[in-house]
Specification:
about 35% helix, SAM-dependent_MTases_sf, 10 helices, Rossmann fold, 7-stranded mixed sheet
């Protein structure tokens, strides 16, 4: 169950997809002064070295974040994303990629809260140490599904639940969808952001089927199929579903990825 390590895949096109959507959602949350909580249920290590042996093995970032750094985008969202990545790197070389917890942490204000869950025995200490001393960030070593059941609803009336499991076990597509139905029943005010890989086997269709079958859920779905990638034989595309999507976020996301077509298609 703990064979997956994201350090082999950091900065790939799926990260670009999910993190742009994550930032678009966080941009909406900070528009209101009331505090919010963000729970990242599969947090990983926080940030990743792209010059590590693991990352260089497949060098997936070369067809992900790397070609974006020289882009001069018109989209405000893409501009913000590139600026964030550039904070960790020099103009001539990309060495570090911030994971979802690091991105979330950049958006948290004094009264906001981040909860980062990681069960992997080698990833958790790295994540815990990375956010050491940050009072409004809580890092837990526990099973993600148990944590979701225990920690939701939040004390804060507003919140985001970010879910990007590895889907190593194919039954996880159905498991995550079923869990989401239960979570929504407990905390219908939250925004839920679910990422899924689009593989040739088509297992992701089960997740979509379950969520779309519930008429009470307000959903926005976006799928990204880059052509210019060396992962095409394994990972065909990247998908996200937003439950309770913020107003006009669909337009913001579509605008961003229309602009990125010149890079990835």
């Amino acid at each position: 169950m703990y064979s997956y390590l994201h350090r082999y895949h950091a900065g790939n096109f799926a990260d670009v997809h999910k993190h742009l959507v994550l930032m678009a959602t966080l941009n909406k949350l900070i528009q209101k002064p009331s505090p919010f909580c963000v729970l990242d249920a599969f947090a990983g290590e926080g940030q990743y070295r792209l010059d590590s042996e693991e990352s260089k093995k497949n060098a997936e970032f070369e067809n992900g974040i790397a070609p974006l750094l020289n882009l001069k985008p018109a989209s405000l969202l893409v501009t913000q994303y590139i600026a964030l990545i550039q904070r960790y790197n020099t103009e001539s070389q990309i060495q570090t990629y911030p994971g979802s917890p690091e991105i979330i942490a950049k958006y948290l204000r004094t009264n906001d809260k981040g909860i980062f869950i990681e069960g992997h025995p080698s990833c958790y200490p790295i994540l815990k140490n990375h956010f050491k001393g940050q009072a409004n960030i809580h890092v837990h070593k526990r099973d993600a599904y148990e944590a979701l059941s225990a920690l939701i609803p939040f004390k804060e009336k507003r919140g985001l639940v970010f879910l990007d499991p590895s889907y190593e076990v194919k039954s996880e597509y159905e498991k995550i969808a079923t869990q989401l139905i239960h979570l929504y029943a407990k905390f219908s005010n939250a925004i839920y952001l679910i990422w899924y890989p689009i593989l040739v086997d088509g297992h992701h269709e089960r997740l979509k089927e379950i969520l779309h079958s519930h008429a009470t859920l307000k959903l926005f779905q976006h799928e990204f199929y880059p052509k210019n990638t060396n992962l095409a034989h394994r990972l065909r595309g990247s998908g996200i579903i937003l439950i309770n999507p913020p107003w006009q976020i669909d337009e913001i996301i579509r605008e961003a990825f229309t602009e990125l077509e010149s890079v990835f298609l």
